[in-house]
Design brief:
Blueprint (H helix, E strand, L loop, with lengths): L2 H25 L2 H23 L10 H13 L2
Length: 77
């Protein structure tokens, strides 16, 4: 898979998580709404990292760290 295909993969699963969050919202499962939104945000950040920085996505779950690495690399170009 090239970087664009990897990005699209991450985008697809992020959208799936948002759809799940919407279903949880409709059923009043508030904790899961927040969790699924966090998951979607993380996956989108990883997709953008793949597209613009490197195919080797950090194996972490800290969105702030992923975004900082993205910013560090993007700003230095």
């Amino acid at each position: 898979m090239n970087a664009q295909e990897k990005y699209e993969y991450w985008l697809d699963i992020a959208q799936y998580d948002l759809e799940t969050a919407n279903s949880m919202l409709s059923s009043g499962r508030w904790l899961y709404v927040v969790f699924m939104c966090q998951q979607a945000t993380e996956k989108l950040a990883k997709g953008l990292y793949t597209l613009y920085v490197d195919d080797n996505i950090p194996r972490i779950h800290n969105i702030k760290t992923i975004v900082e690495r993205f910013e560090d690399n993007y700003v230095s170009q």
